[in-house]
TrEMBL record:
GO terms for molecular function: ATP binding. Keywords: ATP-binding, Nucleotide-binding. Pfam families: DUF3107. InterPro entries: DUF3107 (IPR021456). This is ATP-binding protein.
Amino acid sequence: MDIRIGITNSPREINFESSQNAGEIEKIVASALESKSSYISLKDDKGKLYVIPTAALGYVEIGSDTSRRVGFVA
């Protein structure tokens, strides 16, 4: 799952691959925003932990579960 997180007042994004499914990630982000939690934490495929303050969240883009095709499609 490809995750892209935009940070307010920053030209760069956080972009990583995660083994969590789209529903889990959406639930983590939504519950943190609803409960006014101060941060969210997500793990990538390699075991890195990302802790992002909710006040700095611009957007969270959750990619699809489908794998990418290699080659040309006719």
